[in-house]
Specification:
Blueprint (H helix, E strand, L loop, with lengths): L1 H4 L2 H11 L4 E5 L5 E3 H17 L7 E5 L4 H13 L2 E5 L5 H11 L1 E6 L1 H4 L12 E4 L5 E4 L8 H11 L19 E6 L9 E5 H13 L8 E4 L6 H14 L2 E4 L6 H11 L3 E4 L1 H16 L4 H4 L5 H16 L6 E4 L6 H9 L4 E3 L1 E2 L6 E3 L20 E6 L7 E7 L5 E2 L3 H7 L6 E9 L5 E6 L4 E2 L5 E2 L1 H8 L5 E8 L5 E7 L1 H7 L3 H16 L8 E6 L23
Helix pairs in contact: 3-4, 3-7, 8-9
Length: about 550
């Protein structure tokens, strides 16, 4: 009974039956909204298509394209059919997509028309058909086109369900949670993609927690702008939401803060999932100009009066995000400490979680009603995940290792890297440096691979220095790198909109960067000092979580 309650496939069988007439997904900015019943019908038609294509149990089905209702249908259809879904990030280049399709041995490919550009069926020989996510038309076929088209599938559906397809007809063959549900190819900050084998148990663990913690519930509303092909958005904006009977609005690409705030105002989400970059941009555009100008800057320094101002700022920010959300959950990367400190000061309902693709993704989190701790990413999920610090130093900092229900089964066709990723006693190495406090709250300090050594062997965490630099005027983002002579160099991308608005010349911008360097150095230890600032002409290349791909820039200051 317990097994059935938490069986991943049965989550959706129950939800489709119980929420048949309720809205499930909306393609934001269009008039396309599917009820749970309509989504279930699309899934049943896809099952027919899979059968016509000769797809067997545990065959791989790849999907690549922007967030939309068809993407959602393919994902759920693959898993409820007994296949393994291979989500491919829409930002991957054609060559990377081809590699993933071939490496995963995918038999079917669902892809947006724009992502198909640069791909040919001859380059992916094991794929039997490539089908458009835009409108279900076959883009390219190695099969009989008379059988694999929308009209033929619709006719088969009518033949199999002459009396229609209703809530009572929804039945998915149960799959043990031990089976593989997906293979997710990572896009990391320190290297290239690996295929993460995700058991259904890991997906179920995240969904179970999403529902039991109150993140998702019947009637909950989500605005989904994180890519569904990434574990964070997939687990909560999509999987938890639909398992609970919620409604998610799907935004195709990461929008500008202006468009995103418009969506929040219209949808009024009940919970907001975001990555730090989005919130930090909104904070910089909406809040910083207010708190830096008199008399607000003066009032914030006066006891009691500051509470009134903080309350007004909090209310303004809450209303900007729709006004009806219980909490904003930040994941994917650490939140800028200055931003986090201010949000805590004004009592804005924000909490920070911690996870990774290899845990589908959630490891730590503390709900807002349980008192998230400032600068912490929460405690391990009770009854689901365990966390410990491997070989801690005198400050208690060491590599974070984890184990539990959400943990991956390994990397697809990569036994050596799989072996290296686990300790001998079965703990997964995260590659992150962190420390645990006496109450079990986890604090992330940086990446093992990015930690630098000072002149006397001191540990330097570049992410902490970058957070200070990013708060300086005219700075959009930065990278702290180390030269061969051990001196630290800050690679800075200026905020050119702010520069232009201020009318700064190139020379004045250089002077501003030098002032920023001196200000940051005044807040750093001697071994952490920035020796120089170098300007970078455009934004750094990022992962879908909006973390900078650091490995692309490590040789730029040598």
């Amino acid at each position: 009974m317990e097994e059935e309650k938490y069986n991943f496939v049965k989550f959706y069988e129950r939800s489709f039956r119980e929420n048949w007439e309720s809205p499930a997904v909306t393609d934001y900015g269009t008039d396309v909204t599917l009820t749970y019943g309509q989504l279930a019908i699309n899934i049943e038609k896809l099952h027919i298509l899979f059968n016509e294509c000769g797809i067997k149990k545990n065959d791989k089905i790849a999907v690549m394209g922007k967030n939309n209702s068809n993407w959602v249908a393919v994902y759920l259809a693959a898993i409820t059919y007994g296949a393994i879904i291979v989500p491919i990030l829409q930002d991957f280049r054609a060559n990377d997509a081809i590699h993933i399709i071939n490496h995963s041995e995918s038999k079917l490919l669902f892809i947006s028309d724009i992502n198909w550009e640069g791909i040919d069926l001859d380059q992916i020989p094991k794929v039997k058909a490539a089908i458009s996510l835009n409108d279900w038309h076959p883009i390219s076929l190695a099969l009989d086109p008379k059988k694999i088209n929308y009209e033929a599938i619709a006719q088969k559906f009518k033949e199999q369900h002459p009396d229609g397809y209703w809530a009572k007809d929804v039945h998915f063959d149960e799959r043990p949670n031990s089976e593989v549900g997906s293979i997710n190819y990572t896009s990391g900050t320190t290297g290239f993609s690996k295929g993460v084998i995700t058991p259904l148990n890991a997906l179920a663990g995240n969904v179970r927690y999403g529902i039991e913690s109150g993140i998702a519930f019947k009637g909950s509303r989500f605005v989904t702008f994180l890519p569904l092909a990434h574990a964070y958005g997939c687990a909560f904006d999509f999987l938890s939401c639909l398992a609970a009977g919620g409604h998610t609005w799907l935004i195709g690409r990461t929008p500008s803060p202006k468009i995103l705030l418009k969506a929040f105002a219209e949808v009024k989400p009940t919970v907001i999932l975001s990555v730090p970059l989005i919130l930090e941009k909104i904070y910089k555009k909406m809040i910083v100009p207010q708190i830096q100008k008199p008399p607000v800057s003066w009032v914030l320094k006066v006891p009691f009066l500051d509470e009134v101002v903080c309350s007004k700022i909090r209310e303004q920010l809450v209303q900007a995000f729709g006004g009806e959300f219980s909490q904003m959950i930040i994941g994917g990367a650490p939140l800028n400490p200055e931003v986090e400190a201010f949000l805590h000061r004004i009592k804005f309902p924000v909490s920070v979680g911690y996870g990774m693709t290899e845990c589908a993704p959630l490891i730590c989190y503390t709900p807002i009603n349980e008192g998230p701790r400032q600068f912490s990413c929460g405690r391990p999920l009770k009854g689901i995940m365990e966390v410990k610090i491997l070989d801690p130093n005198s400050e208690g900092i060491g590599e974070v290792v984890v184990r539990g229900e959400n943990t991956m089964a390994g990397y697809y066709k990569n036994p050596q890297v799989t072996k290296e990723s686990f300790t001998k006693d079965g703990w997964l190495r995260t590659g992150d440096l962190g420390q645990l406090d006496e109450d079990g709250f986890l604090y992330i300090k940086g990446r093992c691979k990015t930690m630098l050594l000072g002149p006397s062997g001191q540990n330097i965490y570049p992410e902490e220095i970058e957070a200070k630099i990013n708060n300086m005027p005219y700075v959009l983002e930065s990278l702290v790198l180390q030269q061969e002579d051990n001196r630290l160099v800050a690679l800075v991308c200026p905020d050119y909109n702010e520069v232009d608005a201020s009318g700064l010349t190139s020379e004045q911008l250089g002077e501003a960067m030098e002032e920023a360097r001196k200000q940051v150095n005044s807040e750093l230890a001697a071994y952490e000092q920035i020796a120089m600032v170098r300007l970078y002409p455009h934004e750094f290349e990022k992962t879908p979580k909006k973390s900078i791909k650091r490995f692309l820039y490590t040789n730029m200051v040598q």
